[in-house]
Amino acid sequence: MKKNKSFFIFSVASMLTLSLFGASQKDEVSARIEALSKLDKTISTVEKYYVDDIEFKDIIDKTIAGLMQNLDAHSAFLNEKAFKDMQIQTNGEFGGLGITVGMKDSALTVISPIEGTPADKAGIKSGDIILRIDGNSTVGMAMDEAVSKMRGKPKTPVTITILRKGEPKPFDVKIIRDIIKVESVYAKMIENGDILYIRVTNFDKNVVSKAAEFIKKYSKANGIILDLRNNPGGLLSQAVGLVDLFVDEGVIVSQKGKDKAENAEYRASKSATISKAPLVVLVNGGSASASEIVSGSLQDTKRAVVVGENTFGKGSVQVILPVNNKEAIKLTIARYYLPSGKAVQAVGVTPDVIVHSSKVPQNENEAFMIKESELKAHLKSELDKIEPVDANKTASKKDEKELITTQKVNDDLQLKTAIDVVKVLKIAK
């Protein structure tokens, strides 16, 4: 009787509401009422007949989570635990593996391992598909649930099952969680090249200030290589600021959404520009989001040559909108557009010079020289065990930390190509 009375009041209220609108508005309101009635009936049916007892709050949480998951790969419902985890991650220190993941073709895919983290050391690669986490299938699993399963207390193990292109079958990788602390920017000079190499591993709040510091420190460099490979992105403001260090006018990136209030255009300013040196940007399939904004913008404005492989294709804007003081939704509200008007989402950035990851090809004489160099290094390290290390040797080791050695260049065809392109740009300039 109580339910019927409630339904009668709901029906009368609906009729009164409908009477206030015109014909087209009535149709729209009727459609919304009908849809809400269907949702209410479905929830009531699940609550009454589902095989296991399930609390009403859990039904609602699952309903919201399902809605978010079906919108796109990046929208999500953040329950109390997920919301706390996100806040911990934002503070920059958490227990995990050190990989950024995304949904690609409905598969949980590694965007990139973060340099120096347990996942990176375990050999996880961009493009790897994670089939299972500790034996639990990821098929149909929400991305935030998968991320939550991979996080945990430092020094605890987790086993992920990887499907990798070129491998005959899936294989397990056991990784020990650790506190993830990332050095977002570092710089070195290329040995015998007089070229500044700047590596940006992710876009945290320190990127622009650190990059500017290195550019000023090595202001006499004949060119700059900006390495964004396996960089999963981060703060939009830092991506815009990094481009602004090299570009003095025009649009850097714009974002457009349904709500015009979310539309924005970010432009370069002359006062922020500190370098006109020849510039090459390195990217690969692990370069996503903010990395794609930087590489795509510098490419569109003809400020840099982009070298490497096609980027990931994540060009959408998410915001965290609180549902209450403990829960929130992460919702896609806009998409990024490059200066040319091209969208990044699902397309990515195509390099000017496509180079796949491999070692630099060597002729027999060059190969022998490298092996001889490796042998000398080995013999020196053996001598160090029986002879005291003098100050000059210590200084030499310090220098190595500030240089990209010829050996390292020869192990990285993409980097070698970038160096050659900088040299060509220098000549052209």
TrEMBL record:
GO cellular component terms given for this protein: outer membrane-bounded periplasmic space
Keyword Plastid included in the entry's annotation: no
Record domain PDZ: where: 85-151
PROSITE patterns assigned to the protein according to its UniProt record, in alphabetical order: PDZ
Keywords of the record: Hydrolase, Protease, Serine protease
Top class in the EC scheme: hydrolase
Molecular function in Gene Ontology: serine-type endopeptidase activity
Domain of life where this protein originates: Bacteria
An example Gene Ontology biological process: signal transduction
Annotated EC: 3.4.21.102
Recorded family membership: Belongs to the peptidase S41A family.
Listed name of the protein: Carboxyl-terminal protease family protein
Species, as recorded: Campylobacter mucosalis CCUG 21559
